[in-house]
Amino acid sequence: MLDLSFTRRQILGSASLLTLATAIPAAFHWSGARAPNMLVSAERAPPFGLWSGAVLLDGPRIARLQAMAENLPRFSGEFVLRLDATDDSLLDVAAQQAGVHIRRGAALPDGLGIRAHISSTGRSLA
Length: 126
Fold this sequence. Notes:
By secondary structure, the chain is an alpha/beta fold. The chain has three helices and five strands; from the N terminus they run αββαβαββ.
């Protein structure tokens, strides 16, 4: 006859392993779905590759404007700008199209860019 008796320790150990087995894949999925944290012009991009979370602006200026307008709503809080002069002027137009407000802050050391903060300009009637 099959004995189905379990101790409290066996049940807690099994529950802990099950929780761990479901939490690990969820943690990897969450870290891969992070919001972007940097806008970089192709002319100001580092020669050895981009950081994770960076959005590279490359191609004609209209394509860069569209890329900024599409990606700005995905940004949250503080981020870094590494833009050339033309992309920097297009940023204000893209922010207006995306319905966000960008406040530029202090420059980072060694010419690594400018800190910026993004917030939604959406207003509610409540």
